[in-house]
């Protein structure tokens, strides 16, 4: 049986842009496992999990995750990493799609993987979404936020 760290490292390998194996990634999870994109408030459950990979790879097709530190602590694996890639696809937002800029991203991230009996039960991804947005040229519009608050 593979160790929890080996299972998590395999998950990262399957999520790389040059591999991108959604069904293989999904197979590492329990039947009702969850993938939580914490900064964006998104949860992918069960067979929705591959959508998280394909959605991100449609925006950053060369996505790579540089693992900086991996710590297996019983049934939890904590990983410090950087998500890297090139903005080559439309980035969906509530206000519309940000067209591809060709900009490179290098986003600091911390992931927590919770495993049970050799399967991933919960994956919590804490990426610096504000850094990603700034790197593709979508810095926050503070002026509009201040104007809206003043008018309220």
UniProtKB/TrEMBL annotation:
<dbReference type="Pfam" id="PF12680">
    <property type="entry name" value="SnoaL_2"/>
</dbReference>
<dbReference type="InterPro" id="IPR037401">
    <property type="entry name" value="SnoaL-like"/>
</dbReference>
<dbReference type="InterPro" id="IPR009959">
    <property type="entry name" value="Cyclase_SnoaL-like"/>
</dbReference>
<feature type="domain" description="SnoaL-like">
    <location>
        <begin position="14"/>
        <end position="122"/>
    </location>
</feature>
<dbReference type="InterPro" id="IPR032710">
    <property type="entry name" value="NTF2-like_dom_sf"/>
</dbReference>
<protein>
    <submittedName>
        <fullName>Ketosteroid isomerase-like protein</fullName>
    </submittedName>
</protein>
């Amino acid at each position: 049986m593979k160790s929890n760290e080996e299972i998590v490292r395999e998950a990262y390998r399957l999520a790389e842009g040059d591999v991108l194996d959604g069904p293989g990634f999904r197979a590492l999870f329990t039947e009702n496992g969850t993938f939580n994109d914490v900064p964006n408030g998104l949860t992918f459950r069960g067979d929705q999990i591959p959508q998280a990979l394909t959605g991100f790879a449609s925006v950053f097709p060369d996505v790579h995750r540089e693992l900086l530190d991996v710590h297996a602590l019983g049934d939890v694996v904590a990983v410090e990493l950087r998500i890297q890639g090139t903005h080559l696809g439309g980035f969906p937002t509530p206000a519309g799609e940000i067209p591809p800029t060709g900009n490179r991203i290098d986003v600091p991230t911390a992931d927590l993987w919770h495993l049970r009996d050799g399967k991933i039960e919960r994956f919590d991804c804490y990426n610096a979404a504000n850094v990603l947005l700034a790197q593709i040229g979508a810095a926050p519009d503070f002026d509009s936020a201040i104007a809206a608050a003043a008018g309220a």
